[in-house]
Design goal:
By secondary structure, the chain is α+β, with helices and mostly antiparallel strands. The chain has 2 domains: 130 residues, C8orf32 fold (Roll), CATH 3.10.620.30; 220 residues, Jelly Rolls. The protein contains 6 helices and 21 strands. The strands form 5 sheets. Strands 10-11-9-8-15-19-18-17 form an 8-stranded mixed β-sheet. Strand 8 and strand 9 form a beta hairpin. The N and C termini lie far apart (81 Å).
Length: 365
Amino acid sequence: MDSVSLLTHWAGDEIRYLGLSMGKGEGYTLHDGKTIITDRCGVCKDKASILVTLLRAAGFEAYAAMTMAGSKIEYIPADQFNHSVTVVKLKDGKFHLLDPTWVPFVRELWSSLEQQQNYLIGTKDGEDLAITPLSDPEKHYFKIFGNSELSEDGTLTGTLIIDAEGQSDASFRNTMTRNFRSTWRANFETELLKDFPQMQIIGMNFTDGYDYSKPFQLIVKYKIPGYALKCKDKLIFTPLTVSNLFLSKNSHLRVNTSVDTRNYPFRDACTKSILIVDNIQLPNGYKYNKEPMIDTFNNSATSFSYVWVVGNENTFILNEKVVLKKRIYDPGDWVNFRRAVFAQKRYAKEKIILVKSPQTNSKTR
């Protein structure tokens, strides 16, 4: 896989995407490796073709394949293709999809935005129409870890760590690689300040957008004066980590859920797993007096869990996990999909109320 990865990224990064007509039959004609190496440019079929050339030179069995990006292909003999990719046979004896058009600035070798999509491999003997498999949601995780302290005056001080992989990783890298390096920090700050304008960012570190060797990570040290509403003997707040930070990275939260039923399949961007773990040190003398909150469900389309408890030394502990198991959902999945979206949105607004314990006055006689 090291060789496959290096060759796929080379084809993606070093062959410029540029569409030029090169004569009769241009639509589906695969140009030879010498031409592509010389020109160092081409469209998707040229990127796929040079990757086939590189893989075969390295000893792999590889072929070009055709698909319809973002759409279904009907099982009829018609021109339904608009994109070319590559397949390689590995030791498991199976063909694995590679897409050198989509891999620039992405850790994935195949875009999982194209799950449950038809494709046709161009072997000598011919192949039947196939469908791209579902990708494990855990391969596209979006994790938020919080460690903070809430003061009696309502100030929240702490550290926020965001880890992302797969298409979640690609979404963060897209924010970086489509902009000048000098704007990267400012863009992340803008995203945070959009929801919390009073936030003071004390420090920030993040993965280099061009470093494919590891998943994306963002670490933010912050201070938010007046984060919790102080009302007499109470402090009222919603944990920062569950407030749908970086909303643009969570496409399912932007799906229109106003209709009660669906008659046709519907889609999200990608399978994904969102995990939130938060530890908040509560101010001395303040208590959370209600029972621990537990909300959980699991079905074929989604799963959701939300737990908050007060741990030792007056620490508020929160754990939330959302799993979206498909890219294209059946109409019958709509109820469960909406349920997961509604649950995540609900807890993004849920208020935690801390009550100050009455002081016991001791008198000396």
